[in-house]
Amino acid sequence: MSVSPLRAGLTCKCPACGKGKLFKGFLDIADACENCGQDFSAVDSGDGPAVFIILIVGFIVAGLAVGTELTFHPPYWLQLTIWLPTIFILSIGLLRPFKAFLIAQQFKHKASSDVKRY
Question: Is 22 in contact with 12 (CB distance < 8 Å)?
Answer without folding.
Answer: yes
